[in-house]
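STRUCTURE:
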């Protein structure tokens, strides 16, 4: 379970305990009741329920593993699974307590819960189907609202049954009896399933034939079994059939999603390799130059990231440093990142100042920017012979500077707007000077905004503490120390943003 946090692990442990406890209780109650004291058909039904619960736990385990490995959105399938699992448990208990006058209250409550599971399963099936199909049309949203109201009405009627017996009653002898109005209890589930299948049929051109078939099997298999056993008291197969069909549905639909994700993962791996090769990663950079030492790292939150760093010589004396962060995540941000990096590098190599370079890049990126992405940039040019530099901060994090024998401190000055936000803007240039022995640290917001499981931010205070823990460290060791501090602080929490850092030590001419 190394792919999930502590809270998720605790949830998994809790659900596992509940699932297995319910199975154990059914087996224990069956033993205490005594198989010889039950009709053979009762034993058959209870055994089928226990088997269905075992299958349900297997599906639950598979779902959790699936979520860990490929991030599939199985929330509504898990809701459906839980509803079906409770239905099986309630059905098993109902057969165990049936006919015992001393357990009439338990029998009544248990059967009420069992009756509630049918609309719950149908509504969860609707939610899962709409989520799987990715349907967000107006009519579907309206239908969802209507079904939500119908779901609460169906649940309310089952509570009313406790006082009216419109669906079932428990006689003085403790025996369960269906009322003539029992079929009404199936109306909501039937209409909900039909609504889901209509949506599947409408969207069938976007599905494979086997996917359509699986959805129809889920809807009709328990329905057919329910109709067949409607007039046969003592035979309860619908709950077990539903669990088996959930297993089929999970196996077919989510394995198909996993296959598609394998293809997507392959493309992401290729994109990640391309992005990695775009950024300079040969260190030490220009080892023959004794005026400076630098090191940079990027740790993307996903396979590909929107952060980037860059460094290159403009001529024999001037070094350019770039630290940037594209809004958004994933492939779109990565593409925007590579375009931005190329434009900035080209403009700087053409001899433009940092401010003028970003003005040109801003105009180019604003053209056709339908995705409305933007990029924050810290761009600087440093004369290695004098230590004099010019920097532009376009909406980026403040740089951190350490004077010789001093401590790392944030250098705050007025920002310019981020690049690709507004056409025609000008970027303010800021002059600075590095003295021999000074060090510079620049980073993206993924450093101070790294978050632990308690939703606490790493923050600039902890960042400065990590920098000043060993201020004389060379850039590579310094960045390793900061990353170790971030990892220790974050713990098992998931990384939500790219973490990119660049450190430079200036030795002087």
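SEQUENCE:
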């Amino acid at each position: 379970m190394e792919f999930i946090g502590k809270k998720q692990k605790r949830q998994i442990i809790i659900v596992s305990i509940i699932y297995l406890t319910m199975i154990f209780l059914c087996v224990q109650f069956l033993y205490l009741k005594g198989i010889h004291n039950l009709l053979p058909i009762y034993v058959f039904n209870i055994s089928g329920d226990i088997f269905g619960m075992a299958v349900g736990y297997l599906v639950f385990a598979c779902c959790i593993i699936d979520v860990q490995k490929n991030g599939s959105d199985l929330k509504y399938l898990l809701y459906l699974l839980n509803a079906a699992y409770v239905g099986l448990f309630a059905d098993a208990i109902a057969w165990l307590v049936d006919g015992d006058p001393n357990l009439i209250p338990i029998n009544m409550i248990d059967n009420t819960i069992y009756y509630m599971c049918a609309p719950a399963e149908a509504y969860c099936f609707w939610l899962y189907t709409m989520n799987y199909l990715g349907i967000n049309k107006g009519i579907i949203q309206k239908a969802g609202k209507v079904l939500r109201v119908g779901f609460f009405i169906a649940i309310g009627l089952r509570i009313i049954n406790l006082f009216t017996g419109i669906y079932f009653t428990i006689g003085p002898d403790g025996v369960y009896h269906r009322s003539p109005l029992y079929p009404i209890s199936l109306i909501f589930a039937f209409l909900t399933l039909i609504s889901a299948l209509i949506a599947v049929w409408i969207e069938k051109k976007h599905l494979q034939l086997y996917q359509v078939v699986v959805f129809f099997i889920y809807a009709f298999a328990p329905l057919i079994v329910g109709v067949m056993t409607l007039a046969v008291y003592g035979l309860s197969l619908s709950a077990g059939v539903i669990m088996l069909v959930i297993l089929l549905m999970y196996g077919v639909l989510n394995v198909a999603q996993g296959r598609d994700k394998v293809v997507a993962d392959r493309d992401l791996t290729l994109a990640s390799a391309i992005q990695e090769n775009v950024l300079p990663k040969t260190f030490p950079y220009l080892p023959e130059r004794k005026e400076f030492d630098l090191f940079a790292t990027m740790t993307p939150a996903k396979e590909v990231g929107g952060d980037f760093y860059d460094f290159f010589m403009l001529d024999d004396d001037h070094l350019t440093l770039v630290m940037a962060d594209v809004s958004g995540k994933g492939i779109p941000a990565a593409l925007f990142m590579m375009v931005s990096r190329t434009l900035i590098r080209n403009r700087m190599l053409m001899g433009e100042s940092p401010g003028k370079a970003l003005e040109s890049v801003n105009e180019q990126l604003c053209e056709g920017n339908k995705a409305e992405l933007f990029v924050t940039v810290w761009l600087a040019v440093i004369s290695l012979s004098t230590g004099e530099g010019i920097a532009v901060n376009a909406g980026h994090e403040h740089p951190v500077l350490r004077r010789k024998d001093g401590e790392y401190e944030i250098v705050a000055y007025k920002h310019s707007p981020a690049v690709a936000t507004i056409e025609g803007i000008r970027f303010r240039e800021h002059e600075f000077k590095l003295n021999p022995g000074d060090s510079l640290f620049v980073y993206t917001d993924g450093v101070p905004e790294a978050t632990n499981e308690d939703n606490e931010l790493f923050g600039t205070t902890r960042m400065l503490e990590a920098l000043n823990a060993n201020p004389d460290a060379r850039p590579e060791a310094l960045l390793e120390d900061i990353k170790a501090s971030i990892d220790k602080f974050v713990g098992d929490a998931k990384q939500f943003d790219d973490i990119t850092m660049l450190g430079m030590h200036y030795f002087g001419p």
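REMARK: The first helix runs from residue 6 to 33.
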